[in-house]
């Protein structure tokens, strides 16, 4: 649901790790002059975690701390947030939720380049096959604001950037205070 109190919209980019969330979020942020928050990076920089997960080699996020940190910024609008989970963010934060999808072969290549462990690769590939991120977004946000986008190539990235740019201009025309 659009929030009439903000002058610029907020966008969430979600999807399985490696689908290209940060790449798309960075290009959108720079072309539309939005603040970009990569939740993984933010959690590390500001120590917004509860501990370390040895099995998956990642920080266990303290979700309340992240929400407290971002809420004053997000309520002003003009932000793009990227993260692989989506259900714990306040629904009111976002005007558009993009779910990126990529073919398994492409994801595998990207994980191998990152030297991911086999358990991490299998877990992420299973997530993509089972469309876990898409289902989570559908459970958590109004379907009208969700856009599923393919992210297999540089051309896809450019097309997705254009689609979001057009959506942004339309939002600004109809919702700006
Ligand atoms: N549309 C695309 N086509 C081809 N390669 C891409 C595309 N998007 C991203 N990549 C490449 O895939 C890798 C992962 O991209 P990126 O870090 O943006 O993904 P991510 O979804 O943010 O990952 P994570 O959730 O682990 O942070 C990078 O090497 C990036 O250059």
TrEMBL record:
<keyword id="KW-0547">Nucleotide-binding</keyword>
<dbReference type="GO" id="GO:0004017">
    <property type="term" value="F:AMP kinase activity"/>
</dbReference>
<feature type="region of interest" description="NMPbind">
    <location>
        <begin position="38"/>
        <end position="61"/>
    </location>
</feature>
<dbReference type="GO" id="GO:0005737">
    <property type="term" value="C:cytoplasm"/>
</dbReference>
<dbReference type="Pfam" id="PF13238">
    <property type="entry name" value="AAA_18"/>
</dbReference>
<feature type="binding site">
    <location>
        <position position="114"/>
    </location>
    <ligand>
        <name>ATP</name>
    </ligand>
</feature>
<dbReference type="GO" id="GO:0006364">
    <property type="term" value="P:rRNA processing"/>
</dbReference>
<feature type="binding site">
    <location>
        <position position="18"/>
    </location>
    <ligand>
        <name>ATP</name>
    </ligand>
</feature>
<keyword id="KW-0418">Kinase</keyword>
<comment type="similarity">
    <text>Belongs to the adenylate kinase family. AK6 subfamily.</text>
</comment>
<feature type="binding site">
    <location>
        <position position="22"/>
    </location>
    <ligand>
        <name>ATP</name>
    </ligand>
</feature>
<feature type="region of interest" description="LID">
    <location>
        <begin position="113"/>
        <end position="123"/>
    </location>
</feature>
<keyword id="KW-0808">Transferase</keyword>
<dbReference type="InterPro" id="IPR020618">
    <property type="entry name" value="Adenyl_kinase_AK6"/>
</dbReference>
<keyword id="KW-0067">ATP-binding</keyword>
<keyword id="KW-0690">Ribosome biogenesis</keyword>
<dbReference type="InterPro" id="IPR027417">
    <property type="entry name" value="P-loop_NTPase"/>
</dbReference>
<keyword id="KW-0698">rRNA processing</keyword>
<feature type="binding site">
    <location>
        <position position="21"/>
    </location>
    <ligand>
        <name>ATP</name>
    </ligand>
</feature>
<keyword id="KW-0539">Nucleus</keyword>
<dbReference type="GO" id="GO:0016887">
    <property type="term" value="F:ATP hydrolysis activity"/>
</dbReference>
<feature type="binding site">
    <location>
        <position position="20"/>
    </location>
    <ligand>
        <name>ATP</name>
    </ligand>
</feature>
<dbReference type="GO" id="GO:0042274">
    <property type="term" value="P:ribosomal small subunit biogenesis"/>
</dbReference>
<comment type="function">
    <text>Broad-specificity nucleoside monophosphate (NMP) kinase that catalyzes the reversible transfer of the terminal phosphate group between nucleoside triphosphates and monophosphates. Has also ATPase activity. Involved in the late cytoplasmic maturation steps of the 40S ribosomal particles, specifically 18S rRNA maturation. While NMP activity is not required for ribosome maturation, ATPase activity is. Associates transiently with small ribosomal subunit protein uS11. ATP hydrolysis breaks the interaction with uS11.</text>
</comment>
<feature type="binding site">
    <location>
        <position position="23"/>
    </location>
    <ligand>
        <name>ATP</name>
    </ligand>
</feature>
<dbReference type="GO" id="GO:0005524">
    <property type="term" value="F:ATP binding"/>
</dbReference>
<comment type="subunit">
    <text>Interacts with small ribosomal subunit protein uS11. Not a structural component of 43S pre-ribosomes, but transiently interacts with them by binding to uS11.</text>
</comment>
<dbReference type="GO" id="GO:0005634">
    <property type="term" value="C:nucleus"/>
</dbReference>
<protein>
    <recommendedName>
        <fullName>Adenylate kinase isoenzyme 6 homolog</fullName>
        <ecNumber>2.7.4.3</ecNumber>
    </recommendedName>
</protein>
<keyword id="KW-0963">Cytoplasm</keyword>
